Amino acid sequence: MDDEFKFFQEWWKILRKYWNPPEKKNESKQAVEFWYGLTRECMALHKKYESNKIFEPFALKMVVELIAEIERRSKIDGR
How far apart are CA 17 and CA 34, in angstroms? Predict the structure, then answer.
């Protein structure tokens, strides 16, 4: 249960940090760093829970969904 709580705390921090994404097609240095940082943090979060064989599949799904949500947000309002 402690793993799940810590996971969601970190997951929520990543979501808040990357809530206002640049457009995915934007190739500026800032945009590239944004998408690289998001991917790097999500991969690190998943890696922390690889050894928990029961929780790991759910953690992977949630990390993938987090990236997908940020990508969807990049398309809102012409971003």
Answer: 10
Supply the DSSP symbol for 69.
Answer: H
Instruction: For residue 79, name the pLDDT band (cuts at 50, 70, 90).
Output: very low
Q: Kindly give, in sequence order, each residue whose CB lies less than 8 Å from that of residue 74, ignoring residues fewer than 6 positions away.
A: 21, 22, 23, 24
- For 8-37, what is each residue's pLDDT tens digit? 999 999 999 999 999 988 999 999 999 999
Instruction: Please report where in the chains the tokens 């799940």 appear, as a residue.
Output: 4
Task: Give the amino acid at 49.
Answer: Y
Q: Residue 30 in contact with residue 12, Cβ under 8 Å?
A: no
Residue 65 CA to chain centroid, in angstroms? 8
Contacts of 71 (CB under 8 A, 6+ apart): 21, 24
